[in-house]
Design a protein that fits this description.
The structure holds 2 protein chains of 2 kinds. Helix content of chain A is 79%, strand content 0%. Chain A is mainly alpha-helical. Chain B has 2 domains: 1-102, Rna Polymerase Sigma Factor, Chain: A; 104-181, Winged helix-like DNA-binding domain superfamily/Winged helix DNA-binding domain (Arc Repressor Mutant, subunit A). Classes of the chains: A mainly alpha, B mainly alpha. The complex binds zinc ion (ZN).
């Protein structure tokens, strides 16, 4: 081999990722070429130093903030549950009104309408008590993650559209917009290949 | 510590209590925060993303079925949260025209050199370099975290190291050495 090894080949050679023939050729060249030997030594220095890089620990306040966020979302779901238990007696009371109205032989049209309205409030309350939508039909955690990731991209795309409507000449928003569209396509491809 | 099926099962069994979530946080906070710091090049942003990741982990813990290892699952949530955060940050900056990229500290050692060069590395290379060479994940695990093939993970890694070597060559050994292709 007359030419120097490419940077990528040196790294692949170091990890044993080359096919045996390519590895043999690279080994022969490296043995004779001081330039590639030095480059290989530098790639090795980088690879060997990386695992020793500091593992950063988040400050205590991060844990405090997580606890606080979980506590407040827990409180929200408790409040919805309470709404349900307030709703049930209200529904019972309304039914009683309708029944009494029927017994007394009065026209009950409006009261029945009220029952329907009261009856719906606790129903939506119970549906929202569960903090997460029921996704039991989704078998794969990865697919669920992708789905959520794509939702995030879609939000960004929407914001880009709004920003571009206000200022169509903003090149940086255009760049984010096209990047987000590419990310979305890639994610959908991944989603399709993993969903099978 | 690598996530295993057993670990996943243990975590799910304990998922109902705060204590186990706290343990999970202690086990993974460093990995999540370090990955976020290096992907976002900004500690304050990494703190926000770490919060988001663990709030999400907590909410999804009960529906976690252990189809993937806990570590793969958490890394996937973390990487996606970083990508989402970066996109939103770019958008905020694009709208406000506010430049705010931080560069690392003064290089002293190879690790410091790498740290200071990472913010300039392309996102695709960077995430694989961070996960493989720094966090120690195998290519098969990275493939699952990022939804790419093992081969793509390897090729991104070799390009990442090539980028670093080119950037750091003046500091690694012979300063005047210039290498032709
Ligand atoms: Zn050579």
């Amino acid at each position: 081999m007359d030419q120097h090894c490419s940077e990528e080949v040196l790294s692949a050679y170091l990890d044993g990722d080359l096919e045996s023939e390519a590895a043999g050729t690279a080994a022969e060249h490296i043995a004779e070429c001081p330039v590639c030997r030095q480059a290989l030594a530098q790639v090795r220095a980088i690879r060997d130093a990386a695992p020793a890089m500091e593992q950063f620990v988040p400050p205590e306040r991060v844990w405090g903030a997580i606890r606080e966020r979980l506590r407040s979302s827990h409180k929200r779901s408790i409040n919805l549950a309470r709404l349900f238990w307030v709703g049930v007696p209200a529904l019972a009371a309304a039914l009683l009104v309708v029944t009494l109205a029927g017994w007394l032989g009065q026209p009950a049209q409006d009261t029945v309408g009220a029952v329907v309205r009261v009856g719906r409030a606790p129903a939506s309350g119970t549906a929202s008590v569960s903090p997460e939508p029921d996704e039991t039909e989704v078998a794969d955690e990865a697919v669920r993650e992708y789905r959520e990731y794509v939702r995030g991209i879609d939000r960004a795309i929407d914001e880009c559209r709004i920003a571009l409507a206000e200022n169509p000449g903003n090149a940086r928003v255009l760049a984010v917009y096209s990047g987000a569209s590419i990310d979305r396509q890639r994610a959908m491809d991944r989603f399709a290949s993993e969903g099978q | 510590m690598n996530g295993t099926i057993q670990e996943a099962a243990d975590t799910r069994r304990q998922a109902g209590t705060d204590l186990s979530f706290e343990r999970l946080y202690e086990m993974y906070r460093g990995r999540v925060f370090s990955t976020a710091c290096r992907m976002l090049s900004n500690r304050a942003d990494a703190e926000d993303v770490t919060q988001d990741v663990f709030v999400k982990v907590f909410k999804k813990l009960k529906s976690f079925r252990g189809e993937s290892a806990v570590s793969t699952w958490i890394y996937r949530i973390a990487v996606n949260a970083c990508l989402d955060f970066r996109r939103r940050r770019r958008l905020r900056q694009a709208i406000s025209l506010d430049e705010g990229i931080e560069v690392g500290s003064t290089p002293l050692s190879v690790t410091r050199l790498i740290e200071s060069t990472l913010p300039r590395m392309a996102e695709g290379y960077r995430r694989v370099f961070v996960l493989h060479d720094i966090q120690g994940l195998k290519h098969e695990e990275i493939a699952k975290v990022l939804g790419i093939t093992d081969g793509a993970s390897k090729s991104q890694l070799h390009r990442a190291r090539a980028f670093l070597r080119r950037e750091l060559a003046p500091y690694l050994g012979d300063r005047h050495w210039v290498r032709g292709e």
